[in-house]
Structure formats: structure tokens, C-alpha cells
From TrEMBL:
Cross-referenced Gene3D superfamilies: NAD(P)-binding Rossmann-like Domain
A Pfam entry, by short name: TrkA_N
Domain RCK N-terminal: 1-102
GO biological process terms on file: potassium ion transport
Protein name: RCK N-terminal domain-containing protein
Amino acid sequence: MKQFIVLGLGRFGSAVATTLIELGHEVLGVDNDEEIVNALKDKITQAVQADITEERVLTELGVKNFDAAIVSIGTDLETSILVTMMLKEMGLKYIIAKAQNN
């Protein structure tokens, strides 16, 4: 069993998080939208509401203790890049990022 952190729980992030749970992994899901977090809190290991653009928050979440991070912020390309860079600087070994730019 591996431990994953999914940052951004929109359609893609939610689907990834629930699929990882179905495969027997532990998942911490993080989003800034309270409704989304509440909808997933009983479907994944843990769901929290937080602003992942703050390095302090990522540190408090213990991101470097996870086997991998999935960055699924969506259409905000700049934020996706920022969070991915912070994760890399924090020493996370595996980072998967999905981004869109319209």
C-alpha cells in the first residue's frame, strides 16, 4: 500500500483519489473548496480544506512523507506550476501534474 496526496479535488483529482482508494492505497485529498472536501471525506482516507499555494501549508500536511503527489489544480496553470515547484524543492520524489491552459 502506498500513500498519495492529491492536490485539487475537482473532477480529475476526485477520480484519481477514489481510484487510488479502490486500488488499496491511502489518499489525502486537499482542496480549497469546503463543499468538495465534504463530499469526499467519507470516500477517501482523509480530505482537508487548505490553501496549497502556501509552502507552510504543504509542510504542515507532511507532503514529503508521501510516496507521490498528484497536482490536479485544473485550469490555473500558474498555480499548478507554483505548487509543483514547491513540492520539488521540498524533496518529494514523485510528482504527477495535470494542467490546462485555455
